[in-house]
Amino acid sequence: MASHRLDRITEDIKRELTAILRELKDPRVQGIISIVRVKVSSDLSYGTVYISAMDGMERAETAVQGLKSASGFIRHELGARLPLRKVPELTFRATDAIEYGANISRILDDLKEEDAHHES
Questions:
Q1: How far apart (Å, rounded) are the C-alpha atoms in residues 93 and 9?
Q2: Which of 16, 36, 45, 114 fits a 20 to 30 Å CA distance from 76?
């Protein structure tokens, strides 16, 4: 499959998964949870969805447990929303990308304050 087509399908899957996540009623999936990245195999058989939470890695792992139990519903909804011949079997993985990015932002802010303090 052409890589630009695979990239487009991957983005479509990410967009629809984000919408589906908002509709889930599972309390483990509630809160500020974000889909960081979606990787799909070239034949669209398998997909890995990387989940991150603003509250840290433990919260993301809890959300992954909720998503695993709802994976059948999620896959069915994805098939109904996207015109795909084959809907990928999804695997959910927790990542600390949001927490990592927030930490980098704090470090940069501290460096700016320190630099401004030294210039004064």
A1: 20
A2: 36
Per residue in 38-54, is it b (16+ CB within 10 Å) or e — as a string?
A: bebeeebeebebbbbbe
Tens of pLDDT along the chain (120 residues) come to 578 989 999 999 999 999 999 999 989 888 888 999 999 999 999 999 999 988 888 999 999 999 999 999 999 999 999 999 899 999 999 998 777 777 888 898 888 888 787 776
DSSP letter, residue 49: E
User: 3-119 belongs to which CATH class?
Assistant: alpha beta
CA–CA distance, 71 with 21 (Å, rounded to integer): 11
Q: Helix axis angle, 71-81 relative to 57-69, nearest 10°?
A: 70
CB atoms under 10 Å from CB of 20, counted, come to 19
Domain boundaries, the chain: 3-119
Residue 91: partners with Cβ closer than 8 Å, 6 or more residues away: 46, 47, 48, 49
